[in-house]
Amino acid sequence: MMRETAYMLMVIATVALATFATRVLPFVFFSSREPPKLLSTIEKNLPPMILLLLLIYCLKDVQWFQPPYGAPEILTIVSVTALHVWKRNAMLSIFAGTGMYMFLVQFDVFSFLFG
Question: Are 70 and 63 in contact (CB under 8 A)?
């Protein structure tokens, strides 16, 4: 029992130290000078790249050659894109897109067209 407790305390301490270090190191390295150009480029482009990877991951299992031929996914992507261009609100786009996709899939909205 004592060995497990000591192990858990060491794990917690290691995780806490690693978390603290990742929060402090940027301030230590860049406190007196401007960050490198590469870091600024990564900071600017990382969110869209992550969203693109999520989109690709979500579309990888879509059956494009079987009914409903990816119709819920395509309709949702077009709607979310239009809503985001119109309102420029990421939270609204995320929640509206999720709700729309769940509605289209759960209620099988396209079954009257394809089956």
Answer: yes
The answer to whether the peptide bond before residue 72 is cis (omega within 30 degrees of 0) is no
Q: What is the pLDDT of residue 1?
A: 67
Residue pLDDT, tens place only, 58-71: 899 999 999 899 99
Q: Per-residue confidence at 115, pLDDT binned at 50, 70, 90?
A: low
Q: What Å distances lie between residue 8 and 12, 16, 18, CA to CA? A: 6, 12, 15
Contacts of 75 (CB under 8 A, 6+ apart): 100, 104
| Strand blocks (E) in the chain | none
Q: What backbone phi and psi angles, to 5 degrees, belong to 110?
A: -90, 5
Measure the CA–CA gap between 111 and 108, rounded to whole angstroms.
Answer: 6
pTM exceeding 0.70: no
> What whole-number distance in Å separates Cα of residue 53 and Cα of residue 45?
13
d(CA 27, CA 33): 10
